[in-house]
Amino acid sequence: MIKCVADVRLGLLALDAELYADLERLLLENGCSDGGDLWGFNLYPDDESDDYIEYDALINIRSWQNNPTRGVSDPAIRESIKQIVEQFIKG
Q1: pLDDT tens digit string along 21-77?
Q2: Cα angle: 17, vertex 31, 56; to 5 degrees
Q3: 37-62 burial by CB neighbour count: b if 16+ within 10 A, else e?
Q4: Which of 31, 32, 65, 82 is least enclosed, having the fewest CB within 10 Å?
């Protein structure tokens, strides 16, 4: 499992840190990402099924964005994450 954070507005991806917050901070400190656009997830690169992305991270809990759980409620955001992963990882 690889912890990841995607910036769904800019199409950026940060991977492989101990905490999602570390990846989130990396993107925020870069100066171009906005916290509302950052979503955490787990990547299972050896899984060849459609379940290779697990949308589950503490940084995703955002009541102000109608996302009260660790998952990613909005299907459009999940699709954006999947497209970013496929662009950079599955290429």
Answers
A1: 999 999 999 877 888 999 999 999 888 888 899 999 999 999 999 999 999 999 999
A2: 35
A3: bbbbbebeeeeeeeebbebebebbee
A4: 31
**Residue 74 CB: number of other CB atoms within 10 A?**
14
Report the C-alpha gap between 73 and 42 in whole angstroms: 15
For 15, the token pair is 């991977």
The CB density around residue 4, as the number of other CB atoms within 10 Å, is 25
**Is the dihedral angle over the CA atoms 13, 73, 60, 41 positive or is it negative?**
negative
Number of neighbours of residue 5 by Cβ within 10 angstroms: 27
Closest CA to 3 of 79, 56, 46, 67: 56
Give φ, ψ of 33 to 5 degrees: -85, 150
CA 17 to chain centre: 13
